[in-house]
Amino acid sequence: MKITKIYILHIxxxxxxxxxxxxxxxxxxxxxxxxxxxxxxxxxxxxxVQAGDTINRRDEYNMKQGLWVxxxxxxxxxxxxxxYKNDKKEDFWVKFDSNGFKISEFQYKNGQPNGVARxxxxxxxxxxxxxxxxxxxxxxxxxxxxxGNLCYEWNYNEDGLxxxxxxxxxxxxxxxxxxxxxxxxxxxxxxxxxxDGNIKSQKVFxxxxxxxxxxxxxxxxxxxAAANKNKNETDSVNNNGSPENNLTFGVFNPxxxxxxxxxQFNKIEKDGYFRNGQLYTGKQYIYNEEGELIRAVEYKDGKxxxxxxxxxxxxxxx
Length: 318
Prior knowledge:
Blueprint: H1 13-18, E1 23-25, E2 35-37, E3 57-58, E4 64-71, E5 78-85, E6 88-96, E7 102-109, E8 112-120, E9 126-133, E10 136-144, E11 150-156, E12 164-169, E13 175-182, E14 185-193, E15 199-206, E16 209-210, E17 216-217, E18 224-225, E19 249-250, E20 256-262, E21 267-275, E22 278-287, E23 293-300, E24 303-309
Antiparallel strand pairs: 1-2, 3-4, 4-5, 5-6, 6-7, 7-8, 8-9, 9-10, 10-11, 11-12, 12-13, 13-14, 14-15, 15-16, 15-17, 18-19, 20-21, 21-22, 22-23, 23-24
């Protein structure tokens, strides 16, 4: 059935469809209500449809003009809605699935997608958004998890190739990968992170090819009882090898100085400089089940230079 006229609030066309809708219901029969619910900034009420109303209008040259709404014949729900100008799509167009959930909204210019674009999950949250031009994304582009957290944030050039800084995120919101792209290829330093935010690896790329000699990988690290100090700082220790000051909780530094403690016995376990998560230069203290020192290993440049073994002895670490 053709609907030719409709009464609406007087709102500029671009504002009307910019906030065009979270949910839309359409009843095709004459004499029934037809309502469009926009975002919180606007509420557009399409009043009762009357015979002779001007929606889905063609001019004297048979060209589409103004607001057009296409609905699903089976369900009566709107599938697509937007504006035409001289038979070409113009400004925002909105798509819905057969159940009435909004799928997407794209901005058109002169009949072609060119401008702000958004795609939605069925829960109403944004799935992806950015600027769509022709057949590709350009500029800043964002993709979201269904919980609303950012999944990745990319940058495109005018040809639709990824360039500049690119970021991926874990579902908990923490950064997962960050690096640089050039002409759609990884180019430069790329860092990868664990879900807890600690660094996982560092790699260097040139034209999507990884330099194997510059790969650095870090083992997963939990928050440990540690005092990350400057080179010349030390803790005072009692005769049982236990630190007298209260331990401070910090984050393990896989490439730098750490003083790590065995929390169960409140004693020093590793003390020195680490590389790629492993003790590189410093001392490691090993205890039995009763917390008594049984071994002390000293490292220099990643190699053992001294290995002392004790029999139910303690050590003064001052």
